[in-house]
Specification:
Layout: H1 3-21, H2 25-44, H3 52-67, H4 73-96, H5 108-133, H6 137-155, H7 163-188, H8 195-220
Helix pairs in contact: 1-2, 1-8, 2-3, 2-8, 3-4, 4-6, 5-6, 5-7, 6-7, 7-8
Length: 222
């Protein structure tokens, strides 16, 4: 992302998070619909090898952001579906942003050792949330599996991209999982202090790092 777009995104993010931190919902509401479009504009600017799957991931993230601005189960389900499809778009984007022979990839046993803890953590969270989920149990289970798959596929890029691209996308994927976990705990268990600050800080960091990491891959392989 070019410096000008990065500064715009950082400024909007600070204003948005400040709205949560200082209890000024108008600030958060006014800036939230602008966040992903700015990331998208920064991704596309001067990028001749942009990926439609990255664009789809950001677009679906924007739909999820807007849906979760409203209360009610219908809006929550719409937001959940948008983010689920966004994670699947990122899974495809990860597969697209790979170049064989760049370094030593994970062995099959190592891949299994990576996948199992991620799936276990997602299963543990769903188990803890289960008494409060009611009719949302199956959608949340599916969502937990898909975001786990997104993180696992980010890990499997090792050896197929540059160290910088791998690190950015991997950290971004983990932050996305943390953000969604915090959101779920806050919604279904106990309200977290400054939940909006933690959820949005991890979410915004996730989206930026994933997109920046994928763009770095194409810039190094163009």
């Amino acid at each position: 992302m070019k410096k000008s777009w990065l500064m715009a995104f950082a400024g909007l993010s600070l204003v948005h998070v400040a709205g949560h931190a200082f209890g000024v919902p108008m600030l958060s509401a006014a800036t939230k619909p602008l966040l992903m479009p700015v990331v998208l504009a920064g991704y596309l600017a001067g990028n001749r090898r942009w990926s439609r799957w990255v664009v789809a991931g950001l677009g679906l993230g924007w739909l999820g952001d807007v849906a979760l601005m409203f209360s009610g189960e219908l809006y929550f389900m719409f937001g959940l579906g948008a983010f689920l499809l966004g994670h699947l778009a990122y899974v495809i984007a990860y597969r697209e942003h790979r170049t064989a022979g760049m370094a030593e990839p994970f062995s099959k046993p190592a891949q299994l050792r990576i996948a199992l803890p991620i799936l276990l953590l997602a299963s543990l969270l769903v188990t803890v949330l289960r008494p409060a989920l009611g009719g949302l149990l199956v959608p949340v289970m599916v969502y937990a599996f898909v975001i786990s798959l997104m993180v696992i596929q980010a890990a499997y890029r090792k050896g197929f991209t540059t160290p910088t691209s791998f690190s950015y996308v991997m950290v971004g994927a983990i932050l996305f999982m943390i953000s969604d976990s915090l959101l779920a705990v806050n919604k279904f268990l106990d309200p977290l202090p400054l939940s909006g600050v933690w959820v949005m800080t991890t979410y915004l960091g996730a989206q930026y790092l994933i997109v920046a990491g994928l763009r770095q891959h194409t810039s190094q392989n163009s």
